[in-house]
Write a structure and sequence with these properties.
single chain; 601 residues; alpha/beta; Glucose Oxidase, domain 1; 2 domains; 8-stranded mixed β-sheet; 4-stranded parallel β-sheet; 16 strands; 14% strand
Amino acid sequence: MPLDDRIAAVTARIQDRSRDTRSRYLERMHRAAEDGPRRAHLTCGNQAHAFAAMGDDKAALVAGRAPNIGIVTAYNDMLSAHQPFETYPQKLKDAARRVGATAQVAGGVPAMCDGVTQGQVGMELSLFSRDVIALAAGVALSHNTFDSALYLGVCDKIVPGLVIAAATFGYLPGIFVPAGPMVSGLPNDEKSKVRQQFATGEVGRDVLMKAEMDSYHGPGTCTFYGTANSNQMLMEFMGLHLPGSSFVNPNTPLRDALTTAAAERAAAITGLGNEYTPVCDILDEKAFVNGIVGLMATGGSTNLVIHLIAMARAAGVILDCSDFNDLSEATPLMARVYPNGLADVNHFHAAGGLGYMIGELLDAGLLHDDTLTVGGKGLLRYTQEPQLIDGALTYTDGAGESLNTRILRPATDPFQSTGGLAEMVGNLGRGIMKVSAVAPERHIVEAPVAVFHSQGDVKKAFQNKELDRDVIVVVRFQGPKANGMPELHALTPILAVLQDRGHKVALVTDGRMSGASGKVPSAIHVAPEALDGGLIAKLQDGDILRVDATHGVLEVLTPGVADRAAATPDLSANSHGIGRELFEIFRQKAGPATSGAGVVV
């Protein structure tokens, strides 16, 4: 199928915008690749330190003829999604030895759980943890003794941070190794209902705690379609996962086989063989377009808008929010996974999953089919699914049709004709809205604003019944420069209750919402942020805003707002406690959300 003209136009626009930065990046990467195997540049003393503890692998490492694979792991056992990584290094080392290669744990990177820090002070470090992860992975790979890398990470900031590092060391081949989602527990819609009942005082904390524990109940990624699972989708659409590996449950024979296969493939694609596949050649403009199309077709996380912009910049590719909007306009919404529906990612995978979706989008001309991947040239192989046949990992043709059209539908008969995100532009600045879970009749809200400087203050106003009306809740001074741009997850149950009472409700903020938030219209990531000259800093209670996702409008209708003095909040409390002191330089140097809210790129 010929490439859709709209996809081709956005791709050409990105290529033209990125021409200088991309060419400089590739020149650096290819020059580094010409230096040959990394270990050739180490002195005998350097090598002795690197190989001192490697036992039987020492001879192969010293000879320098066998590939040496660096493992960068985000393991900890506080994150359910990362707990399975505890056993991965040994599995990967054993697999490498079987194909005549060696592997070493190059280093570990921190991994925050946003589920633990939601609504807590620690969430103010969350976004910047992405930059720390990139820096930590850079330290791990700086030993210059690896021919390829395996990146072990799943959740919200971890995969983006690792991708930034992988792009920075783009002359090295790299494969991302997932751990898979936990098996299904309490349905997400039931959990959400209990959260709303707790917010209104209908049930106690004991009922809430039981619902939460029944939902998050074992090893693996949370099963709703938030940022973590959007990351996994992205790695498959962009060719950094092995085909079909994203949503296989942990601690299963197939999961183990895919982990082993990742090590084998990492050994095969180094510069020492005939299939050299560096990350820099995978992460081109077409790969990022494919990733954005996947994000739109699945109704994925709003956080990926920020992360994709930052990841792309690390590879010399310049993305703009308008690219997301225009690709959303061209991409049908094919999936209904919570919060966009009742199903979880296990149900989505069983219905046909990413393999079916990639096949449909290729047939519709909505994906570039000629991208380079860790599995070889082209995305067609990502329409197949892995199976264990007689104990051997085998790829077979996928179902070819959706096995549950309430969850997954063909591109020719989607849930809606456009994707999950819309850009919002107006005199208030630029923002985005996740529209895939918002009912169409709620896409336009025009109402007076109620202005707050924290989600805690919104909670108090809700409890005091000050918000029982048509209202646009504005929560400002939540951007990266102000306090690190924490997710404002605690607002979701409150605003949903107001909406369910029949009020017209919307949220406008220079902060973030959970990547799984949905049914309340929310114009988020507003830039410029309040602390960086944004008009949002001049709003006052009662001003009239128009939030229009149908036409992409974010407009202050009250005259004279621009002539006011900006509010000057006391942010001193954001500068200390729970490690915030360590991140002052990050807040000072952070870029706007429209350029990825990054520090290191």
